[in-house]
Design a protein that fits this description.
This protein has about 300 residues and is α/β, with parallel strands linked by helices. It has 12 helices and 8 strands. The structure holds guanosine-5'-diphosphate. One of its GO terms (cellular component) is signal recognition particle.
Length: about 300
């Protein structure tokens, strides 16, 4: 499970601190060195780690903490607060259009879990009483269209397709019209993925964006790729502009570097996390719960 290694290391560090009772500045510095190493081993972005440790240290070394009756506890509380802050403080919700339909565009590289996540998100919104429509706009990956039809069928959400011979922009336009005519209040479009980021991909996504004017552009990235996921997020945000991130495969990521870095690097929140291959395995991302999971 995510943060396995990090949780174990941090909990050990703080156990030592708590057992000491009274703490000196050196105790805090030593502990912070361990925290820094643990975060780097979890593949957290270097600059993020540096800033984080600096912030915690500044707060922890104050007289208020060191002279309190339970300095160890106070430091754990500070780390908890700063970890929560790092991941975005509060849960970041989807923006719904004041006048439906709400248009959500899912973007990402091949294999990140975009198509699966389209189905998961449609299922989640359906459970909340929405009437979603899925649009099959990934015409490049063989079987992506069929796959979207299958996941759509499983969550009982209609899927609009035009095959793979029509341009993604035309598919998006026609799909949106179809949704409006059929009373769908949320329209989720699966877009073209590629193996790597390139000009062509970005241009195409920009064209789709300007055609359908989405309320949310969500980038799907694979948590297990760590800092690569963060770099992908930075590039998509710079070139296309994203509103949030969906971090998939958190169930297989024992380190958690992407979860801890992406918000800080891109200033865009993680809105959902994928926790398995099944269609119900998508959950809103709660920074405070994640922080508590790390600290035990
Ligand atoms: P796409 O190319 O981005 O559309 O990727 P897919 O939706 O086809 O997903 C690629 C693989 O990742 C599939 O085998 C999915 O079942 C798997 N996958 C997607 N999300 C998750 C997740 O949250 N956890 C796990 N374990 N697997 C996932």
């Amino acid at each position: 499970m995510v943060f396995e290694g990090l949780a174990e290391k941090l909990q050990n560090t703080f156990k030592k601190l708590k057992s000491k009772g009274k703490l000196t500045e050196k105790d805090v510095s030593d502990a912070m060195r361990e925290v820094k190493l643990a975060l780097l081993e979890a593949d957290v972005n270097f600059k993020v780690v540096k800033d984080f440790v600096q912030k915690v240290k500044e707060r922890a070394i104050g007289a208020e903490v060191l002279e309190s009756l339970t300095p160890g506890q106070q430091i754990i509380k500070i780390v908890n607060e700063e970890l929560t802050e790092l991941m975005g403080q509060t849960q970041s919700k989807l923006t719904f259009a004041s006048k439906p339909p709400t248009v959500i565009m899912l973007v990402g590289l091949q294999g990140a879990g975009k198509t699966t996540t389209c189905g998961k998100l449609a299922g989640l919104l359906k459970k909340q009483g929405k009437r979603p429509l899925l649009i099959a706009g990934d015409i490049y990956r063989p079987a992506a269209i069929k796959q979207l039809q299958v996941v759509g069928g499983q969550v009982e959400v209609p899927v609009f397709t035009m095959g793979d011979k029509v341009s993604p922009v035309d598919i998006a336009k026609a799909g949106l019209e179809h949704g409006v005519n059929h009373g769908n209040d949320v329209i989720i479009i699966d877009t073209a993925g590629r193996l790597h980021i390139n000009e062509e991909l970005m241009e195409e996504l920009q064209n789709v964006k300007s055609t359908i004017k989405p309320h949310e552009i969500l980038l799907v990235v694979d948590s297990m790729t760590g800092q690569d996921a963060v770099n992908v997020a930075e590039e998509f945000n710079g070139k296309l502009g994203i509103d949030g991130v969906i971090l998939t495969k958190l169930d297989g990521d024992t380190r958690g570097g992407a979860a801890l870095s992406v918000r800080s690097v891109t200033h865009k929140p993680i809105k959902f996390v994928g926790l398995g291959e099944k269609l119900e395995d998508l959950e809103p991302f709660y920074p405070d719960r994640m922080a508590s999971r790390i600290l035990g």
